Amino acid sequence: MVGGREYERVAGELRRRIRAGDPAPGGPMPSEAELAELHGTDPAAVRGALVLLRAEGLVGDKGDSVTVVLAPRRTVRRSSERHQWEKDRAHAGLRERSATGATENDTGSVVDDLVFSARYTRVGADPGLAEALGVPQGTALLERVYRTRHRDEDAPFSVASSYLALDLVESNPDLLDETREPWPGGTQSQLRTVGVEVDRVEERITARPPTPDEADGLGLGAGTAVMVLRKTSIDTRGRVVDWSEVILPGDRSEAVFTTRLERW
């Protein structure tokens, strides 16, 4: 193929076959020599194709130099409509709020499918957090770090870090206790317990290469980028009441933006 892109052609053909179930998840790929003969190419192009497929999470290595097809990872579909859904649920009963949360909504899972972890830490606002939250540097904050994964997978769907001004939530001691997580209904339901109503949510999304810790923690293949979502929640008094940064793996995350337009 012109331009030295033969490996991309081979990768495309292998990708289509894998997605069609040949080989099935868990099954071994043919050897590099067999693939080269099958696709009428040389082993170097096959090796380049397999590098791409490993980065996409379609294949992985097993002992004895065997390449196997990996089961597809679950996709997170994060819609801009999730915030109104979460706000509406703040008024629902405990049973309804406990039945499903935002992660279940985004992934099509049920509560029993998920393994959830939360870590709370009290920190002082550094210059970046002070600007994001509109508070003086050094202001006491509650940092909350969340990881949720499917019970059949090793890597979480994302890593989310949320920051609240401590004086905003400390009137309810339950909001300072990580063992109370996962909180039925999420952050908006938590804020409702201290009289806070979220008026609007602003989100900014960028993409970049992962840090080594992010690549390891999210189980990313070589060359896979992360999406960085920064969310600012503003209450009805105009205060920033929550600022969050969510690191999403680029190989299995989809951001969906729905804008309701006024009719003529």
Which characteristics define this entry?
264 residues; alpha+beta; Arc Repressor Mutant, subunit A; Chorismate lyase; two-stranded antiparallel sheet
Report on this structure.
By secondary structure, this protein is α+β, with helices and mostly antiparallel strands. It has two domains: about 1-70, Orthogonal Bundle (Arc Repressor Mutant, subunit A), CATH 1.10.10; about 75-255, Chorismate lyase (3-Layer(aba) Sandwich), CATH 3.40.1410.10. The chain contains ten helices and ten strands. The strands form three sheets. It has a six-stranded antiparallel sheet with strand order 4-5-6-9-8-7. A two-stranded antiparallel sheet has the order 1-2. Strand 1 (about 60) and strand 2 (about 65-70) form a beta hairpin. Helix 1 (about 5-20) packs across helix 3 (about 45-55) and helix 2 crosses helix 3. The longest helix is centred in the N-terminal third of the chain and has 14 residues, at about 5-20. It is elongated. The relative contact order is 0.13. The mean pLDDT is about 90.
**What is the structural class?**
alpha+beta
Tell the overall outline.
Answer: elongated
Please tally the helical runs, counting DSSP H or I stretches of 4 or more residues: 10
Trace the largest sheet across and list its strands.
4-5-6-9-8-7
Question: Mind telling me the CATH superfamily name of the largest domain?
Answer: Chorismate lyase-like
Please count the beta strands (DSSP E, at least 2 residues each).
Answer: 10
Might you state the CATH topology name of the largest domain? Chorismate lyase
Tell me about the biggest sheet?
6 strands, antiparallel
Query: What is the strand content?
Result: 25-35%
CATH class of the largest domain: Alpha Beta
Mean pLDDT: 92
User: In angstroms, what separates the terminal alpha carbons?
Assistant: 53 Å
Query: Taking Cα atoms only, what radius of gyration do you get, to the nearest Å?
Result: 22 Å
Low-confidence stretches: none
When the domains are counted, the total is 2
Helix % is: 25-40%
CATH architecture of the largest domain: 3-Layer(aba) Sandwich
- Give, in order, the helices and strands: HHHEEEHHHEHEEHHEHEEE
